[in-house]
Amino acid sequence: MSEHSLTYNYNMNTEITERQKEIIRVSLEIIAESGIQSLTIKNLAKKIGFAESAIYRHYENKIQILLAILEFFKQNSEYFFTSQLDSNEHTSIKIEHLFLNHFKKFADTPSLVAVIFSEEIFRNEEALTDKVKEILNKNITNLTAIIETGQSKDEIRIDIEAAHLAVMIMGSLRMFVKQWHMSNYNFNLIEKGSEFIHSIKTLVK
Q1: Distance CA 111, CA 115 (A)
Q2: CB 6 within 8 A of CB 67
Q3: pLDDT tens across 117-160, in order?
Q4: What is the pTM of this model?
Q5: What is the pLDDT of residues 24-33, one digit of tens each?
Q6: CA-CA distances (angstroms) from residue 15 to 76, 118, 128?
Q7: Which of 190, 142, 134 is CA-nearest to residue 170?
Q8: Do 142 and 163 contact (CB within 8 A), yes or no?
Q9: How far apart are alpha carbons 115 and 31 in whole angstroms?
Q10: Which of 129, 168, 193, 204 has its CA 20 to 30 A from that of 45?
Q11: How far apart are CA 88 and CA 177, in angstroms?
């Protein structure tokens, strides 16, 4: 599992400098090593090797850095969903691809999980809470559209409302990844994830 590369599709709406990419990359390294509470401007500047003032030229504070990380994930996740929305494959295959793409992203950058699933930590930070809600709502909306298309083609079960199925599927993905995170990554997310996907596909048939 690597924390040393940023392979996000971040060129859709927002331009980001190489220095900002470095700040985000090192921030994720700190989170991976010591937890999200250890991410401070002081620790970040020390790890990168330049003055705190250099960080402040790019991000006003820790919250802005976390927002940038969330925005990275948001755009990457939207890319995954858009590619499946435009696909002509069977709905169960679309869902499989969505899960696998997210599993691969989390496996490559595990510290993302600590940021994305940190509602309790973010509770008093409205901007962070709103960004997490934005990501979750957008993903559920896109997945609902995929499921509705599949139901119209009689590819998946129609006895459960599409929006409800979307919440069930997203909730299961979220819980599975969180279980991996809470276990200190003691199982292979992609291998076990593939087995988990098979169960999800069985449930939605």
Answers
A1: 7
A2: no
A3: 877 677 788 899 899 899 999 999 999 999 999 999 999 999 99
A4: 0.85
A5: 999 999 998 8
A6: 14, 26, 20
A7: 142
A8: no
A9: 8
A10: 129
A11: 27
